[in-house]
Design a protein that fits this description.
Radius of gyration: 21 Å
CATH architecture of the largest domain: 3-Layer(aba) Sandwich
Order of helices and strands: HEHHEHEHEHEHEHEEHHHHEEHEEHEH
Largest sheet: 7 strands, mixed
CATH class of the largest domain: Alpha Beta
CATH superfamily of the largest domain: Type I PLP-dependent aspartate aminotransferase-like (Major domain)
Shape: globular
Number of helices: 15
Helix content: 25-40%
Strand content: 5-15%
Length: 411
């Protein structure tokens, strides 16, 4: 960018009504991995739709035509952000639901190759649906994490790949150990073996919307309610793979790529508001730069600024936690090797600790976070769970300081 290079966090926070709310403005939000605050651009579009266009879209009268255009615009903006064709983007009620539909489509497609590789680093949404296909004649292989670090190794993946593998499902980033897996490299390995890739981007996208044309995944999934938007699951699927999978929509929509993997009617208002995520990215870019750029390039540059700011806060927090004898950081304690989602093993129930933090205006959670397989692989009692502290680019230094103060007293 030609002007400001450091993220203006005060400007960023001004884009979120939550920071002005009397209920929230004194609170420090550290459960962003469970869902982010919503930007005003998204809220404005949602209210606009409900107030002026809450009719069945695409009918031949003005309000319906405007409603349809609002939905179409969101599709165009989201696909432009992700640098892919609009025909490859699909909206569903959640990522878990989108994953479930994909698994049913694959089961009915009955591919020649019947092996599916899953990991024990994933959120259950991107592992359980595929594992259940074992009952339908598929073979499941587990790509396991290093039990000390929680990391996945591409060398281990190479030993699992062969000419029976149809699909490899893995996370872009774990919601517990927060390593950023080398997605482009993994997707190349998978493609070269003749298989397909399904990437769960739910824990990565809040920190930087990915350029999907660079990653090379056949499927990429994330949740817009964790990327400052409405409660939707956003799914990219290549046109080629979409055509291969069995139709899950109405039989008369089987030839429509946009409807084959959407068995239920979409939430019109939320889809219309999803384009506000792109408006938010553009607002951040325009505040920091006066150079013209494509939406994909703006998204990439804003993502770089977001991640640089997050790492500047993550380093001191990890240093502080590393000095404690009362917690074990799951994953790396190096800010350069992870994203700002930190899971702490306390060797006792984590939920009461989270409740105690609330007395100091720290919003955090304890639990297994649907990653029981990973916790067990790391030697954590999933019944105790972990204390998870997750933040994003709108978090400021004062909140990190307040968190450390609270942890001093609670731990």
């Amino acid at each position: 960018m030609s002007n400001k290079t450091a993220l203006d966090v005060n400007f960023v926070r001004s884009q979120f009504p939550a920071f002005s709310s009397s209920d929230l403005k004194s609170q420090c939000f550290f459960e962003n991995a469970g869902g982010s605050y919503t930007s005003r651009q998204v809220i404005d579009k949602l209210m606009q739709f409900y107030n002026h266009h809450k009719v069945q879209p695409y009918s031949p009268f003005p309000a319906a035509e405007t409603a349809g255009m609002a939905m179409d615009l969101s599709l165009e903006l989201i696909s432009a952000m992700l640098n892919v064709a609009s025909s490859t983007i699909h909206f569903g009620p959640s990522t878990s639901q989108n994953s479930y539909i994909l698994a049913q489509a694959l089961r009915e497609s009955n591919p020649v190759r019947k092996t599916i590789i899953v990991t024990n680093q994933d959120h259950e949404a991107n592992t359980g649906v595929w594992r259940r296909l074992e009952k339908s004649g598929f073979v499941i292989r587990e790509w396991q994490v290093n039990p000390e670090t929680g990391a996945l190794s591409t060398d281990d993946l190479n030993t699992l790949l062969d000419d029976t593998v149809h699909l490899v499902a893995f996370p872009h980033c774990s919601n517990i150990v927060a390593y950023e897996n080398p997605v482009a490299e993994i997707c190349r390995l998978v493609k070269n073996s003749g298989a397909r890739s399904c990437v769960d981007g739910v824990s990565f996208a809040p920190h930087c919307f990915p350029d999907l044309s660079e990653l090379g995944a056949d499927i990429y999934l994330f949740s817009s309610y964790k990327t400052y938007g409405p409660h939707l699951g956003v799914m990219y699927i290549s046109e080629e793979y979409n055509e291969f999978l069995s139709n899950q929509g109405h039989y008369f929509n089987a030839q429509d790529l946009s409807k084959r993997l959407t068995p239920a009617g979409p939430d019109h208002a939320q889809i219309a508001s999803a384009g506000g995520m792109a408006d938010y990215v553009e607002a951040i870019y325009d505040h920091h730069s006066d150079e013209s750029a494509s939406l994909a390039d703006k998204t990439k540059l804003v993502g770089q600024m977001q991640r640089a700011h997050e790492k500047s806060l993550l380093g001191p927090l990890l240093d502080y936690l590393s000095q404690s004898q009362k917690v074990r950081i799951l994953g790396s304690a190096n800010a350069l090797e992870r994203l700002p989602t930190i899971a702490l093993d306390l060797e006792k129930p984590a939920e009461p600790i989270a409740k105690s933090l609330a007395q100091y205006e720290i919003m955090a959670s304890g639990g297994d976070f649907y990653a029981i397989r990973l916790l067990e692989a790391l030697g954590v009692d999933h019944k105790n769970g972990v204390l998870r502290l997750s933040f994003v680019h709108y978090t400021n230094k004062e909140e990190i300081d307040k968190l450390m103060y609270a942890l001093d007293r609670v731990l």
